Amino acid sequence: MACPECGDQLRPRDRALRCGTGHSFDIARQGYVGLLTGASTKMTGDTADMLDARAAFQGAGHFAPIAAAAAHACTAGIDRAPAPDEAAVILEVGAGTGYYLATALAAEPTFFGIALDVAKPAARRAARAHPRMASVLADAWRGLPIRDHSLTGVLSVFAPRNPTEVARVLAPGGRFVVVTPTADHLNELVGPLDMVRVDPDKDRRLADSLSGLFDRIAHTRVEFPMKLTRRDVTDVIAMGPSAFHGTPADDPRIAALPDTTEVTASVTVSTYVPTA
Ligand SMILES: C[S@@+](CC[C@H](N)C(=O)[O-])C[C@H]1O[C@@H](n2cnc3c(N)ncnc32)[C@H](O)[C@@H]1O
Ligand SMILES: [Zn+2]
Fold it and tell me: Rounded to the nearest whole angstrom, what is the distance from the C-alpha of residue 152 to the centroid of ligand 2?
């Protein structure tokens, strides 16, 4: 990892990470390192309630096919490491609970992971998500605290991206895997429960933001039905952008649902490599 103030390599010492210039960043009691600087210290990201809901929903396994597809895209057929003496490292930007990165690490016993999120409740959870995962509290929009061309992969699942920075930190041939919802994601719930809709132009905006920096090498639609209880439905709303629009846990529209509702999960998993 790199110092967010000066870019020098960070090394662990006395429950902190320090660079050669003398900047020092504490490792919190909960196991993550705080690398927020400047104005970003006011950024909060997702709330503890959203993280609890997301952990419950992911823990129930409903998004397991998405995690498997993302893990496969990050790891399958890839050179193990950027250099013979270096470990393969995958960074997840906006990692939340760390669920997707943990799935990729489980698939590749030699890989290490860095979970980055601007939300403290996320950084706390990710610190416990996997023994080979480090957790960093940082703002992806302020630059990634990572040395140039040092990573095997970068993963972004339903999360913000910083394409210029991702291109800077990826090793040649490294992969940038982006998972975004399609317009059909959770469509049985979106209308009846007044959830935030996916921008139908999302795919084109993603392509625009990456053009010139990355070439797309794979693009897969992952779509499957889920059987959700009322509890699951409450969680899936509380964990996403609709939570900010106030859907209370005791919403009468959820109470009126049958014991289980079939709901579509629909995402695209896109794999990019830096343009040579
Ligand atoms: C919709 S969540 C997805 C989390 C995780 N990838 C998942 O799918 O479970 C988006 C995450 O991005 C984080 N986030 C938002 N803005 C960020 C930023 N500027 N830098 C880093 N993380 C950010 C939020 O705190 C949140 O955890
Ligand atoms: Zn420094």
Answer: 24
Structure tokens at 137: 């509290």
Q: Is the CB of 66 under 6 A from ligand 1?
A: no
- CATH number where 82 lies: 3.40.50.150
Residue 129 in any domain: the answer is yes
The crossing angle, in degrees rounded to 10, of helices 48-59 and 99-107 is 40
Nearest CA to ligand 1 atom 27: 96
Whether 130 is in the pocket of ligand 1, judged by its Cβ within 6 Å, is no
CA distances from 43 to 34, 37, 118, 123, 245 (A): 13, 10, 7, 13, 19
Q: Is-contact 206 160, C-beta < 8 A?
A: no
Write out the residue range of the structural domain in which residue 140 sits: 31-185+195-225+267-274
> Token pair for residue 176?
């940038």
Maximum C-alpha span of the chain: 61
Place of tokens 């999360």: 159
Q: Does residue 44 surpass a pLDDT of 80?
A: yes
Residue 14 scores a pLDDT above 80: yes
Q: Is the CB of 145 under 6 A from ligand 1?
A: no
Q: Into how many domains does the chain fold?
A: 1
Does the predicted model carry a pTM greater than 0.90?
yes
Q: What are φ and ψ of residue 262, in 5° steps? A: -85, 125
Task: Assess if residue 130 is contained within a domain.
Answer: yes
Tokens representing residue 23 in the block: 């900047």
